């Protein structure tokens, strides 16, 4: 399987993904790796219903996603989604073939501070980003194709953790 | 019958503003944006709006229509996740001005099923070719 986009977005499957990125990247499958959504049949149904009919929707746990990514057909194009940085870091740690991560939207919430206009993090999430970078994954933040792209590097994460 | 217009950006706020320009101030019609909100925050905000209209003694949710701009977006997902089986809440996507004006005209007079059927028809009928090159 080829991961054409590995995106962290706390809105999960929504218009920026199904219209913006899918029209640009033409994935065969949207793979949402989210333990909580996968365990809730109603949530899984709601999010799956957001996927255009010509794209396969798969909603599963992080562990199941790793298995799928490592065993699926080589020519299948995957748009991989998680709702948190830690889930994406877990995917990479468990062997998912991800070399670049797109931060698409992590919105304001208690305990989070602004890093970029659409990226708010708490310390644990920043540490997960640091782990991803240390494992050789590159990271940028970009909401939609053609939108402004921000490089997320060690210096940015360090500055966040040690202001 | 209460109405919530939950949309991307300022679309809902502007729809409600224009509706009130035409009809005058309205009670029980609220705009909500998804701007800057995660899926869980938007779901909680819609749930909070529904519960604000609940009967204070029984906690029963009041009849409501959730107007959404487009199916498959964060507002539609949040609306579906915010409602619970058996509640008198209808979710309609594709909100437009005609649909909202019809809602305000008929919301006190029709039973919910009839109202919703008319809103769908009215909203669809508003999309029509008025002229131009054939």
Give the percentage of residues in beta strands of chain B. Answer: 15-25%
Largest sheet of chain A: 7 strands, mixed
Distance between the termini of chain A: 40 Å
Second rung of CATH, namely the architecture of chain A: 3-Layer(aba) Sandwich
Total number of helices of chain B: 5
The helix-and-strand class of chain A reads: alpha/beta
The CATH superfamily of chain A is known as Phosphotransferase system, sorbose subfamily IIB component
Q: What kind of oligomer do you see?
A: heterodimer
Could you name the CATH topology of chain B?
Rossmann fold
Q: How many separate domains of chain A?
A: 1
Based on DSSP secondary structure assignment, what is the total number of beta strands of chain A? 9
CATH classification, class level of chain B: Alpha Beta
Uncertain segments of chain B of ≥5 residues (pLDDT<50)? none
| Number of strand segments of chain B | 4
Shape of chain B: globular
The top-level CATH class of chain A is Alpha Beta
State the strand order across the main sheet of chain A.
Answer: 3-2-4-1-5-8-9
What portion of residues of chain A is helical?
25-40%
Mean pLDDT of chain A: 96
Topology of helices and strands:
The complex is a heterodimer of chains A (163) and B (134).
Chain A (H helix, E strand, L loop, with lengths): L1 E8 L5 H11 L3 E5 L1 H4 L2 H9 L6 E5 L1 H10 L5 E6 L2 H9 L6 E6 L7 E4 L2 E3 L1 H12 L3 E4 L8 E3 L1 H8 L2
Parallel strand pairs in A: 1-4, 1-5, 2-3, 2-4, 5-8
Antiparallel strand pairs in A: 6-7, 8-9
Chain B lengths: L1 E6 L3 H13 L5 E5 L5 H14 L11 E5 L5 H9 L6 E5 L3 H10 L5 H14 L9
Parallel strand pairs in B: 1-2, 1-3, 3-4
Please outline what is shown here.
The complex is a heterodimer of chains A (about 160) and B (about 130). The radius of gyration of chain A is 15 Å and the shape is globular.
